Amino acid sequence: METRFVRLVYSREQGLFSFASMHSATHSVLLIILIFRGTNGDSVNQTEGPVTVSEGALMTLNCTYQVTYSDPYLFWYIQHLNKAPQLLLKSLTADKKVEHEGFQATLVKRDSSFHLQKRAVQASDSAVYYCALRDTVMEGCRGS
After folding, report:
1. Rounded distance, CA 10 to CA 15, Å?
2. What is the DSSP string of 64-90?
3. Contact present, 6 and 21 (Cβ < 8 Å)
4. What pLDDT is attached to residue 44?
5. 43: CB partners within 8 A, 6+ apart
6. I want to staple 42 with a disulfide (CB 3.0 to 4.6 A). Which of 15, 23, 67, 82 is the partner?
């Protein structure tokens, strides 16, 4: 019985995605590409480059942040091949776990972290994942 490997490749220079299917008699592997994003002098740092995880295994994608003035809102977005990014998780409250479709994350204020986890990843989870933040100070400036 052959096991299918799925590989997602992202090229920053060309902005292209491509899938490659490979066959092997060993374990299934999931490759996840990560790109980090920041806003307005504040920043997020997340696991960079490809992350390979065996299908059915626990996946953890790290995200830490730095803000200048205030408590941020943190987000995880997912972008599948040829699709627009979609909101996966958001946290507006520190130390509260948020969950959606098997993914979970907790905004830990003391560590400035918002790590994404999924207990049993599947090949369908192959995607580009973005950690993003929004400074709540900007929220107050919009009404001025």
Report:
1. 7
2. EEE-SSSPEEEEEEEE-TTS--EEEEE
3. yes
4. 87
5. 65, 66, 133
6. 67
What the chain holds in terms of domains, given with CATH numbers, is 6-12+41-133 (2.60.40.10)
- Amino acid identity of residue 53, one-letter, is V
Q: Smallest Cα–Cα separation from 10: which of 26, 33, 27?
A: 33
- What secondary structure does DSSP assign to 77-137, as a single string? EEE-TTS--EEEEEE-STT-EEEETTEEEE-BTTTTB--EEESS--GGG-SEEEEEEEEHH
**Distance from first CA to last CA of the chain, Å, rounded?**
64
Task: Report pTM.
Answer: 0.69
Please, what are the averages of pLDDT over each run of 10 residues along the chain (144 residues)?
37 33 39 48 83 91 88 92 95 92 94 94 93 72 47
- Rounded to whole angstroms, the Cα distance separating 132 from 144 reads 25
Give the pLDDT score at 74.
93
